[in-house]
Structures are given as structure tokens and as C-alpha cells.
Design goal:
The chain is mainly alpha-helical and about 200 residues long. The chain has one domain. The protein has 7 helices and 2 strands; from the N terminus they run ααααβααβα. Helix 3 packs across helix 5 and helix 5 packs antiparallel against helix 6.
Length: about 200
């Protein structure tokens, strides 16, 4: 149980530390985005997907480039989102395997999985970091103050959610609450299942 409990205790610091490295230019040759067999590696890989998506979503809203550039960005977003969802499921698989021997006969089912909560914490870390940078550096004092106020709210939300994650894992270990891994079964990236791709002749035979 220790690795899972340890990552849950340090989840905010893990996310913030990775963002500090990546925004400082530590993205090149970093292993943080690589798949691994332990929870920390998977959490960092999933966090890296959200980091990449953050930049891609900004690029997708540009108006000073052509449609072809935006189309390329949108396809990159699709690929990153697919990987993000795959990693959320892998996080859940690892956690469920760790708790496989727990007696769940009197356990209540929790609707959200640990992987989904970690994903939400990752996005909150990105919001806090980026709005915090605007609050610190923006020349317009009103905008800076607005962003600083939002950071306070986001930090409280993150602390609450991190506490809920830790409580869920404690309850799972004790057989009080559990979650199931529900596969997302994303169809839009599958040329066999997306009707638009099938009608375009990309579905094969």
C-alpha cells in the first residue's frame, strides 16, 4: 500500500515540481513523460499530457495563422487526449491491482476513480501555475488582482480534492469504499468506429 499512499500524500508537490522543471526548459530528455510500471511514473506521464494539451489548446485559438496550422494542432490535441485517457485507465488499473485482496463485501461504490481525481488535480496545478504567473507579471493591476483571487479559490479546490483522494484510498484499503475502472472506449480516434472516418473510406475493408 505504501507507494500509492505515498504518491497521494505528495501529489500536489509532484505536480508542481514537474511544472517547475518543464516551464524552466527541463522538457528535453526528461523521463517525466515516459510510461512506467509504478504509480509515480504514470502520474507524471499523465500530467505531461495535460501540460502538452495546455499549450496546444492555446495554439488552437490563434487567429494569426492559417487553417492548415490549426488543423494540425487539433489533430495533436486528439492524440494527446487519447494518451491522457489511456494513462488515467492505467493509473486505475495499478491502484486496483494494489487493492485486489481487500474485502469489498461491505464497501460502498465511489463514482469517480482515483485516476480521474489525479487528472483533475493535474489540471488544477496547471491553472494555479499559469494564473499565478499572470498575477505576478501582468502590467495591468486589475487583471493581476483578478488572477490572484482566482488562484486562492483554485488552491482551496485543489487542497479539498487532494484530501478526498487520500480519503478514498484510505477507505479502499480498509474496505469501506471502492471504485471500478470503467473503460472510456473512445470511438472518435478509431477509423473503424467513427462514422465520419468510415464514410470517408478510412475504415479499411
Amino acid at each position: 500500500m505504501a507507494p500509492i499512499a505515498g504518491v497521494a500524500r505528495e501529489i500536489e508537490a509532484l505536480h508542481d515540481g514537474a511544472l517547475a522543471r518543464w516551464y524552466a526548459g527541463g522538457l528535453v530528455d526528461s523521463e517525466d513523460g515516459e510510461d512506467g510500471d509504478d504509480l509515480e511514473a504514470l502520474v507524471l506521464a499523465q500530467h505531461r499530457c495535460n501540460f502538452d494539451l495546455w499549450g496546444l489548446e492555446d495554439e488552437a485559438r490563434r487567429r494569426d495563422v492559417g487553417d492548415a496550422v490549426i488543423a494540425t494542432v487539433k489533430r495533436s490535441i486528439d492524440a494527446a487526449n487519447q494518451r491522457r485517457n489511456d494513462l488515467i485507465e492505467r493509473v486505475d488499473e495499478l491502484v486496483l491491482a494494489e487493492f485486489a485482496a481487500v474485502d469489498l463485501s461491505r464497501s460502498q461504490l465511489h463514482s469517480e476513480t482515483a485516476g480521474q481525481m489525479i487528472d483533475r488535480l493535474s489540471i488544477l496545478a496547471l491553472k494555479i501555475r499559469n494564473l499565478g504567473a499572470i498575477a505576478r507579471d501582468h502590467a495591468d493591476a486589475a487583471i493581476a488582482r483578478e488572477c490572484a483571487d482566482k488562484v486562492v479559490v483554485l488552491a482551496a479546490q485543489r487542497a479539498d480534492l487532494a484530501g478526498c483522494l487520500r480519503q478514498l484510498l484510505d477507505d479502499f484499503a480498509a474496505g469501506r469504499r471502492h471504485f471500478k475502472s470503467y473503460k472510456q472506449f473512445k470511438a472518435y480516434n478509431d477509423p473503424r468506429l467513427n462514422p465520419a472516418l468510415v464514410s470517408a473510406g478510412d475504415g479499411g475493408d
